[in-house]
Structure formats: structure tokens, C-alpha cells
Amino acid sequence: MIQKLDLPVSVVLCFDHKKRISVPKKLLFEGREHLISKVGLHHTYREGRILFHVFSVADDTMFFRLVLNTETLGWTLTEISDGEVQ
Prior knowledge:
- The chain is 0% helix and 72% strand.
- The chain is mainly beta.
- The protein has a 7-stranded antiparallel β-sheet with strand order 3-2-1-7-6-5-4, with no helix packed on it.
């Protein structure tokens, strides 16, 4: 089931200088650590002058959509899914 959210979360982001890419590695949500095993789509968009990075990621059991606000450097969890169809 897909759930739309708007919650601040903590994210560990890793930058690989050889590949020149940044990827989320860990997410802290509701007091639980989720190790990110797969990074899917990454895209950006702007609202006014603020640039946002959107990452679609998954751990072993759940899917997450994370948004990084580049002005505040804060992360928001906007979508979560357990993979089951409602």
C-alpha cells in the first residue's frame, strides 16, 4: 500500500568521488534504521529559487521517496510503500 507523507527524516548520504555521484545509504524513520539496498530514480525540480533532489530508494522490504531541500539541507519522506496492492 502506498502512503503519501510529509515527514522530516534523517538520511546518511554518500558521495563517490570516482563515479561523481551521491547516493543515500541509510534512513532513520520512526526510530528505526533502514539500510538502503537499492537506489532507483533520481531527479530534481525547482520551486522558485529552491532546488530539490528526489530519490526513490528501497530497503529489503519497503520503498521510500526522499526529497532533499538544497536550501535547508533537510530531508523529507514524501512516500512509503510496503509493496502490497490495496
